[in-house]
Every structure is written in structure tokens, then in C-alpha cells.
Design a protein that fits this description.
This protein is of the alpha/beta class and about 250 residues long. The protein has eleven helices and eight strands. Bound molecules: pyridoxine-5'-phosphate (PXP).
């Protein structure tokens, strides 16, 4: 099986909206961030419309659909409301994520194996509408096989456990998590799934994941938006792009 194309960077702009919403009003504008990200080399924009609308709003999604020149990756929970919104906008890609109201961020991968039937019926209309369907899961063979069976075209592997172990200085766990990501990228690719990865990636953790030849896209948000306070958004993204390209070559 071949590896087509360069490693893509999807920039997640959720936390521009988090800062905006801390005060209400219109600033900083996630659409402006998306335009800067495009100019800085983002291959796509990712936005998660959460059920509680804590960051991205419905109007943001409408605005992104109007102005983007790169694909929108619409992250959503597997609910009827979100399915209707996705079917109305028909973004290039949808990524189905687990969502709990009390969590600070998307803490784990989706339990596909336990909900196979429901999820198969849930994603079918999205696929029929032309959206590329991705499922956000842990690096776990059972979940990957289930994602394949329900008809997802893409899996996104959750890199949070690897990044957390790195941040805590727990090198043993970090290396074990990285090895699981490597093995499961290869396994998913062998099933014909396109492999993406993301969550918690930083300049310090991106390179080993970017080096996996099966990984076609990384989705990165929180660190880049934080780093943009110091560097500016465009330069922060360019630096990430460079690390990804260097790791790949
Ligand atoms: N990929 C998915 C599916 C996510 O849910 C998130 C976080 O919303 C990310 C990537 C990006 O994670 P981070 O903001 O930690 O870079």
C-alpha cells in the first residue's frame, strides 16, 4: 500500500474562540485566525462545535464554511443535533469525538467497539453527503477494527497519553505510548484506513509522530494558540510545519 502526499497540518482554532468567549463580544476572531493559519501553511482548519458551545459557535461554523479556502474538519459528538448541522453544511471532513460535559478537553477516544451498530447508522448519511468520516480513537486494535467495520474512511489516533507522559517526565510510559501509536498506525493503514493523529502535541512531542510514514494528517490546536501569544499565530504555525516536514524527511 502506498503513502500518498505530504503530511498535512490541520490547525484547530477552538481556543481562539475560548479566549473570545471569556469576555463575550467578537475578539479575537476565529475566522481571522483561520485566514492567518491558511497563509502560514495549514492544510486544513479544524473546529469542534461542542454541545455546550463553550468555544466554537454555530455562527463560527457558518463563517468558516463561507470563507475557508482549505478544507474544514468539523469535529462533533455523535448526536442527532450535530448530525443535522453537519448535513446542512457538508464540510469536507467530519471527525466523530466522544464528549462529556464535565471534561476540560476531549479526554479519551471514542468507544466504537461498544457502539458499533449505532455508529454505523450514524455515519452512513454523513458519508452519503460526501463528508470524509474520521473517528477519534485510542491506539487500540479493537477500536481500529470496529472503526473499519462501521465504514469510517479515517481514524485519528489520540496522542494525549503520549504527550501527558512526556510532560510528566515519565519516559517509560511515553515510549510505550509512542510504540502503541506506531504499531496501530501501521495496523490501521494495513486495513486501508487513512491515519491521522492529534491531541496535546507540542514542538517537543510532534516529531516522532510526524515521522510515522502512515500518518497523513496531524491536528494541533491548544499549543499553537498558546504559543501564538509569544510568537504570533503565523510564525507559531510555520515552526510546527517545519518540525513536521523535517521529521518526515
Ligand atoms: N484532534 C481531536 C480529535 C481533538 O478533539 C483535538 C482537541 O479538540 C485535537 C486534535 C487537538 O488537540 P490540541 O488542542 O490539544 O492540540
Amino acid at each position: 500500500m502506498s503513502f500518498a502526499g505530504k503530511l498535512r497540518l490541520g490547525v484547530n482554532i477552538d481556543h481562539v474562540a475560548t479566549v473570545r468567549n471569556a469576555r463575550g463580544g467578537a475578539y479575537p476572531d476565529p475566522l481571522r485566525a483561520a485566514r492567518i493559519a491558511e497563509e502560514a501553511g495549514a492544510d486544513g482548519i479544524t473546529a469542534h462545535l461542542r454541545e455546550d458551545r463553550r468555544h466554537i459557535s454555530d455562527a463560527d461554523i457558518e463563517g468558516l464554511m463561507d470563507v475557508l479556502t482549505v478544507p474544514l474538519n468539523f469535529e462533533m459528538a455523535a448526536t442527532d443535533e450535530m448530525q443535522q448541522i453537519a448535513l446542512r453544511h457538508r464540510p469536507h471532513a467530519v471527525c466523530i469525538v466522544p464528549e462529556k460535559r464535565e471534561e476540560r478537553t476531549t479526554e479519551g477516544g471514542l468507544e466504537v467497539a461498544r457502539e458499533e451498530n449505532r455508529l454505523a447508522h450514524f455515519i452512513a448519511p454523513l458519508r452519503d453527503a460526501g463528508c470524509r468520516v474520521s473517528i477519534f480513537i485510542a491506539a487500540d486494535k479493537r477500536q481500529i477494527e470496529a472503526a473499519h467495520r462501521i465504514g469510517a474512511q479515517v481514524i485519528e489516533l489520540h496522542t494525549g497519553a503520549y504527550c501527558d507522559a512526556h510532560a510528566e517526565g515519565d519516559t517509560k510510559t511515553r515510549d510505550r505510548e509512542l510504540e502503541a501509536l506506531r504499531e496501530m498506525s501501521s495496523f490501521a493503514h494495513s486495513l486501508g484506513l487513512e491515519v491521522h493523529a492529534g491531541h496535546g502535541l507540542t514542538y517537543d512531542t510532534v516529531s516522532p509522530v510526524a515521522a510515522f510514514p502512515e500518518v497523513m494528517e496531524l491536528n494541533i490546536g491548544h499549543f499553537l494558540i498558546g504559543e501564538s501569544i509569544f510568537l504570533g499565530l503565523g510564525p507559531a504555525i510555520s515552526q510546527m510545519r517545519k518540525l513536521m516536514d523535517d521529521a518526515r524527511s
